[in-house]
Amino acid sequence: MPRCCDKQGTNKGAWSRQEDKKLVHAGQGSWRSLPKATDLHRCGKSCRLRWINYLKPDIKRGNFMPDEEDLIIKLHALLGNRWSLIAGRLPGRTDNEVKNYWNTQIRKKLMKMGIDPDNHKLNQIAQLHFHNQPQQCISASMEKAFNPINGDADMVTDAGSCFEDDRMSAGSSHDLNLDLNVAFSFPSPTVVAGEQKKLENTEILESDEIPTLVIDQLDVGPRRRVTDDGTDSVAVGVEEMGHVREVPELEVLCGY
DNA sequence: AATACCCGCAACCGCCTCCAC
DNA sequence: TGTGGAGGCGGTTGCGGGTAT
């Protein structure tokens, strides 16, 4: 069965100005029927992508601000490669843009700093470097991350924090009012390790002993999970679209 | 000046989810 | 409940511009 883009006479590749004009004129709608209605020889998917990533009126173009970069790193630590979710927290940015920026800029930056961009942990070389010359190469926030509250010696850190001090000294004036630092000053909740999945039977755990934090409307924190067999446990997770997803990365960030 | 190489980004592709029927 | 179409998402590709040789 041919795909929609395989149709004969369907254009591919870069969009021309005329095509853009037609798409702008038509605007958002039913993507499959739009090409017919506007005499655009593009498949609906292509129209949608062009609109979302380039033609949509509220798209913010140009370089990413340091605050945005910091936020991307932190959200990536929490959510992984869920670009649409990450982009949703960055007004005017698209998932494609965020993804490209991560792959071309941030990934390199983190690797240069000795941080594995996939799991946000320091690699062995960086650990060694830190122990040899802590005052010269590690910022205060990073050092804090190296010394978890519980005194554990785990070599884990929140990569986003590594950029904070540099920017403070550079006098960043942009304040997104986002405190994404993850720090539990309470006894650690039991963390349910395992694969990331949607948890249907969960509820917010309201306990004085267990902290909850809200990250830019992203509700992150421990939940009571009631499984089918009646047992309940605590999972650290992120609520999204009515579901709670476990985030093992939080264990890392919190130094579990 | 010509060529090779690198890099960023727009666009494509395939898979998944949702929803109407 | 199953099925098919449409939209959405993340990974990947390839083009074009910039830089090095």
Automatic annotation (TrEMBL):
Any one Gene Ontology molecular-function term assigned to this protein's record: transcription cis-regulatory region binding
InterPro entries: Homeodomain-like_sf (IPR009057), Myb_dom (IPR017930), Myb_TF_plants (IPR015495), SANT/Myb (IPR001005)
Domain HTH myb-type: 7-55, 56-110
Any one annotated GO CC term: nucleus
SMART domains according to UniProt: SANT
Gene3D superfamilies in the record: Homeodomain-like (1.10.10.60)
Superkingdom of the source species: Eukaryota
SUPFAM superfamilies: Homeodomain-like
Compartmental location: Nucleus
Pfam families, per the entry: Myb_DNA-binding
Stored PROSITE patterns: HTH_MYB (PS51294), MYB_LIKE (PS50090)
Alphabetized UniProt keyword annotations: DNA-binding, Nucleus, Repeat, Transcription, Transcription regulation
Domain Myb-like: 7-55, 56-106
Membrane-traversing stretches: none
Cross-referenced PANTHER family: F14D16.11-RELATED
Listed name of the protein: Uncharacterized protein
Organism encoding this protein: Acer negundo (Box elder)
